[in-house]
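Technical annex, item 7. During the second reporting period the consortium partners agreed on a shared format for inverse folding records so that results from different sites could be compared directly. Each record opens with the tokenized structure and is followed by the designed sequence. A conforming record, contributed by the partner at site C, is shown below for reference.
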């Protein structure tokens, strides 16, 4: 009975969480004034910042390798930014997960000849006909938008004189997350498992979990060195010290919420107790505000993840 009540509470909290406003979708934004900023990260590696998730870019003799592609209306601007550092067409687009601010340009890039690569759950979520029980929809995504190469655990590219290791982290931000490690350049793109300087979005409804996100962060910390540069899903180019700060915040607030759940507190009582209060001024200024962050942690932990 206790497990049943906890599950019901988790579901109700998740519904409330999803009902709160999230970042504007491509259909709600005006992209006319968005500019793509190109940041040099390492030799041949760039971070592109516009609207949506940060883009990783490798350029060299083999052609551009792109990590995530933001929203569809920005594709021409993104291509122009790529053209400023490479005279070749994009050969690969690697999606770190399925959310539209990271995959919205897939159809445009796929139609232009780029090969879309992602974890197999990304293809399922971009193609709800294959994942209708989760998506609640059977709408078919455009074929050009779907990954044509998928992987389960990891895949390695030898491209632009780089060894690019891509590995899945389970049930973290979503159930289809990939971390991208440019090993020679010592650059890691974490997708939305790292929001630099703000509270993260844990998409419980897409298989994400608090424990999985912390595990993903710990895995990258174990790989990274003092000079590793980290491209977050959102926020500025970061260091291993920044990632450790993010980990420490996550673990501290997770532990507090878990302890309150163990003590029998409901979500309203937990919000009143303010488990994230000491971090709110520094971390609560993003689109995931303190209440939304705590609600997501509660939904995940009360549901056993």
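Designed sequence (site C submission):
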């Amino acid at each position: 009975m206790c497990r049943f009540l906890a599950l019901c509470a988790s579901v109700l909290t998740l519904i409330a969480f999803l009902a709160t406003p999230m970042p504007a979708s491509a259909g709600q934004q005006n992209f006319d004034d968005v500019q793509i900023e190109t940041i040099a990260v390492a030799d041949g590696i760039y971070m592109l910042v516009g609207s949506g998730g940060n883009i990783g870019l490798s350029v060299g003799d083999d052609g551009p390798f792109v990590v995530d592609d933001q929203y569809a209306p920005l594709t021409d601007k993104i291509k122009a930014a790529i053209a400023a550092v490479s005279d070749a067409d994009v050969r690969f687009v690697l999606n770190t997960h399925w959310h539209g601010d990271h995959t919205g340009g897939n159809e445009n890039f796929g139609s232009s000849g780029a090969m879309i690569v992602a974890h197999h759950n990304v293809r399922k979520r971009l193609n709800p006909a294959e994942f209708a029980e989760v998506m609640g929809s059977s709408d078919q995504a455009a074929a050009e938008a779907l990954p044509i190469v998928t992987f389960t655990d990891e895949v390695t590219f030898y491209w632009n004189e780089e060894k690019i290791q891509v590995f899945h982290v389970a049930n973290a931000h979503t159930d289809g997350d990939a971390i991208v490690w440019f090993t020679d350049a010592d650059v890691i793109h974490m997708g939305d498992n790292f929001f630099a300087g703000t509270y993260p979005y844990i998409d419980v409804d897409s298989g994400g979990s608090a424990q999985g996100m912390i595990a993903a962060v710990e895995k990258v910390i174990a790989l990274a060195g003092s000079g590793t540069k980290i491209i977050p899903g959102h926020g500025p180019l970061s260091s291993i010290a920044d990632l450790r700060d993010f980990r420490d915040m996550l673990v501290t607030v997770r532990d507090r919420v878990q302890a309150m759940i163990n003590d029998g507190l409901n979500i309203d009582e937990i919000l009143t107790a303010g488990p994230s209060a000491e971090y709110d001024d520094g971390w609560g200024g993003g689109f995931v505000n303190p209440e939304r962050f705590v609600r997501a942690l509660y939904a995940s932990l009360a549901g056993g993840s």
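Residues 35-249 form a domain with the Metallo-beta-lactamase; Chain A fold (CATH 3.60.15.10). Confidence is low (pLDDT under 50) at residues 1-24, 134-138. All partners now use this format for quarterly exchanges.
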